[in-house]
Every structure is written in C-alpha cells, then in structure tokens.
Amino acid sequence: MHSPVEQFTIKALMHIELFGYDVSFSNSALFMMLTVILSVAYLTYAMRNRDMVPGRLQASAEMLYEFVSEMVRSNVGSEGRPFFPFIFTLFIFLLFGNMLGLIPYSYTFTSQIVVTFVLAAFIFVGVTLVALIKHGMHFFSFFVPPGAPKVLIPFLIIIEVISYFVRPVSLSVRLFANMLAGHTMLKVFAGLAVMITGAGGVAVAGSILPFLALIGLTGLEVLVAGLQAYVFTILTCMYLNDALHLH
Amino acid sequence: MANSVAVKTTGLKLGALTFGLAVMASPALAAGESSGGLPQLDFTTWPTQIFWLVVSFTLAYVLMSRIVTPRIASVLEERHTRLEDDMERARQAAQEAEDMRVSFEKALADARSEAADKTRETLANATQEADKKNDAAAKRLATKIAKAETKIMESRAEALKELDDVASASAVDAAASLAGVKVTKTDAKKAVKAAAKAMPAMEQN
C-alpha cells in the first residue's frame, strides 16, 4: 500500500546538473512545461481566426482574458495596466497547473511549497520594489495606519510590519496547503476503494461508497483548483494596488 | 514597463537566493526525508523545482506578453471599434428615417389642409351660384304667376259681365213671351242682380 503523500514525490526524468546544482528535468518540471505549452497553444489556437463573431473556443479565450482584465481594472485601476501581462500569466499558469494536476497520473506542481513560495516571494519583493520606486521613502507611511491614536502607533507599526512580511507566507501556504490536502484526500478515498475491493467477496459492493465520495471530491477539487488560482491572483492584484496607491 | 522589468530581475535574484538557502539547508534535513515525511520537505528537490519554475514561468511570461495577450487585445479592440462604428451608423440611419418621417407627415398635413380649403371654396361657390339661380327662377315664376292671375281675373270679370247681359236679355225675352209684360232692360238687370244675390243664399240652404 502506497502512502497518500507518495504522489508528491519528485522523480527525475532526465538528469541535469548546472553549476553543481541538481536541476534534473523531473515530473514536476514536465508538468510546468506542459502547462505553459498547453495554455499558450490553446490561447493561440483559439484566436487563430481573429473572428469578429467568436466561436466557442475563441469566446472561451476571450472570456479568460476579460476576466483577468476586469480583475486588474477593478482591483488595481488603470495604473495596473503595465502589470496585466504578468497577472494574466500568473493566473493562467496556476489555473492550468491546478487543473492539469487533477488528471489521474499527472503531477500537481502547485502542491509543492517551494514552487508557491518562490512565486509568492517574487510577487512580494516585486510589489515592494514597485512601491519604493513609485513613492520613495513615503512608502514607509504604509505601516502607519491613518487616524490611529498616537500612543498606539508603535504597536500598530509592529503589527503592520509583521502582517506585511507574512504576506508571502500566507499567499504561498494557502495554495500549497489546498493542493496538498485535496490531492491527499483524493488518494485516501481512492486507496480505500481499492483496499475494500481487495478484501473480496461481499465487501466488493461496499467499495462503491468511497468511490462515490471520490467522484464528489473530484468535483470539489476542480472548484478548489479554479478558486485557489483566482485567490492567488486577486491577492497579487490587491498587493499591487497597495503598492501603487499605499492606503 | 520599466517597473515590470525591475520586478522580474528582483524575482530572479530572490529565486537565486532561495535556491542558495535550499541547497545549504538540504544536507541537514535530508535525514528526515527517509523516514517517510512529506516529499515537499525534501530540500534536495528544491533546486530543480525552482530552476524549472523560473524557466517555465519566464517562458510563459514572454509568450503571453509578446503573442497571446496582444493578439486577444487587438481582436477585442477591433470588435469594439467595429461595434461603435456600426452603432454610429445605425444611429445616423435612425435619425435620417426620423427626419424623413417628419417631412412626410408635414407634406401630408399640408396636402390635407390644402384639399380642405379647396373643398370649402368650391362648396361656397357652388352654393352661391345655386342660390342665384334659384332666386332668378323664383322671380321668373312669380312674374309668370302674377301675369296668369291678372289674365284669369280679367277673363272672369268679362265672363261675369257677359253672363249678366245674357241673363237680363233672356229675362226680358222670358217676361215678354210668358207674361206679355214689357220689361225694360234696366229693370231686368236689377232683377237678375237680385236673383244672383239670392242664389248663393238658397244654395247654401
């Protein structure tokens, strides 16, 4: 019997070493590349005719674009326009990564804390730099809540600074934990169904219960995959908005 | 644009930093990995994941920002302008139709009032003429009637006079032949007149 977390194991498919570091092309890397190739191929193929009246495929690509575009517009405003390609890439990368990971025998690279943390840290540092470039030293007023009583200001600054630095952690852990928990749960129920079937006899009929649960959970996981990609992206938009407009 | 480039380079630096940290940490924690912990905490796999994340995400960013988003944006933009143009044309056409309707209605109203005026005029003229003709005809008739009446009166008077003469003559003759009385013409006339006066009274009884 396999452990339910065994599915997260990184397996090297092709050994590569760069400057002394092991950067082997693994199952995780394969699905990252697949995500990029499939999403770009889909979006390019969908828009191939540049139809004035879009077909189903083109309409879906346009919907994705307008969804992210609207998200940036309503959360960041017009100043967020230069960051749109990044936000769009981020959303598509996470959405396709999460969805591809739900296909049996595939790999969910977003279930790796290192992946979500590097993304979140990149966003955190980038957003902080954007704020420093735009507002200079004035940026630090961000840690002083406006209208707070003078006595409380030192404490509030501490709290604000902590909450600011916790951002990349909460952002990365949210996605990672959702993916980890979801896929583990799927594996547990699938394993249960297999185990009951293995008992033989009348017990085989009982395996229908975990199997039905598995079907329901798969639907739930599709929802979580979409929702977590959305949450990650919209929080990025909010951080960017804070950086551009401070309070 | 400059901002996003800055963001990117920092991200790469940070990636490298985490990379370094992970590699430093991995020998210390590698021991925990064999005891069946989470594969996510196997730090030896972090460099490859970070490396391929940077590669794939950068590739995705380049493809999305260079090819995918400009293409979708241009199609949406094109459709937007096209729709605006069409809407503008439709508005113009509607305006034209409205103008046409207004002018048509005005022409119709004008024609209607003109026709009404003409009808009224014609009717008035016709009535006037008819009245004139009627009057003339009535006058003519009246004169004719008057003439005829005078003629009748004359004839009647004459006839009555003649009747008196005849009656007195026959009375004279009758008196002479029946009674042998010689009656003067004057007396006969008187008698006839008296008889004539009595007659209507008798007839009435």
What does this protein look like?
The complex is a heterodimer of chains A (247) and B (205). Chain A is built from seven helices and four strands. Chain A is mainly alpha-helical and 247 residues long. In chain A, strand 2 (17-18) and strand 3 (21-22) form a beta hairpin. Chain A is globular, with a radius of gyration of 22 Å. Chain A starts with 11 loop residues before the first strand and ends with a helix. By secondary structure, chain B is mainly alpha-helical. Chain B has three helices and no strands. Chain B has helices at 2-33, 46-179, 185-204. In chain B, helix 1 (2-33) crosses helix 2 and helix 2 packs across helix 3 (185-204). The N and C termini of chain B lie far apart (143 Å). The interface between A and B is large, with 64 and 52 residues.
List the helices and strands and how they pair.
The complex is a heterodimer of chains A (247) and B (205).
Chain A: E1 12-14, E2 17-18, E3 21-22, E4 25-26, H1 27-46, H2 56-75, H3 84-101, H4 113-135, H5 153-199, H6 203-206, H7 208-245
Antiparallel strand pairs in A: 1-4, 2-3
Chain B: H1 2-33, H2 46-179, H3 185-204
Helix pairs in contact in B: 1-2, 2-3
